[in-house]
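Attaching the record inline, Q. Sequence:
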Amino acid sequence: MSSFMSLFADLVGSLADLLEPLFHASAMAAAIVLFTACVRLLVHPLSRASARGQKARAKLSPQIAELRKKHAKNPEKLQKAVLELHAAEKVSPLSGCLPSLFQLPAFFLLYHLFSNSSIGGEANALLGHKLFDAPLGGRWADALGEGGLFGAQGLVYLALFAIVAAVATFNFRRTKVQMAASAASAGATPAGDAGQQVPGMGAITKVMPFMSYMTLFTVAFVPLAAALYVVTSTTWSAVERAVLYRDMPYGASGALATAA
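Structure, as predicted:
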């Protein structure tokens, strides 16, 4: 594991060296943003496949509405019938989770890389890099202790919080509109009944609009390098979904704006 971390550290360091003429002292931070973009490009085919699956599920809405009427008094049969419908149409009700799952290893790599004082038995030189005045291995609590909320380091985090809040608000509004339209297209079915389409989806549907705001807590508690990954990836996701689902009817589904 240590040899792999050393190899990954060398990769990130090489990216920073390439970007140093442009970004100078913040070259490592720029390298992390570039690394995140590369990861998202690799995951993009999964995102496109997820969009196709979402559109396929949208086409099943009339059939699901019929099943809901048919099995209105038997939730167990409704769940089974809906799952069988998805299987028959080769549509996965949870395919939208795949892009997020495949990004987790990259996030944890950065988290561990900037959380350890040594790599491969040697001092971790990456911890000396900064984004402006904020160390990439530091956390928001450290920034508060080095000048307070509006200190040089604190301002870096405030800027990241502002970006995350803007993206989260965009996702929140988009998801609420889509979920409302989805309920209307399904015959104004109460949110609790809509959860019967797929086991467990009712609870997910209720909290989904707020999930993007959870990113604020992640940014506050992880090393700044990992926070940069999260902010870049979350922003990418918002733009990507707006493009991939631009021609999708709002009544299709509300499962489009989960955090990345």
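Strands lie at 118-119, 122-123, 130-131, 134-135. DSSP finds eleven helices and four strands in the chain.

More tomorrow.
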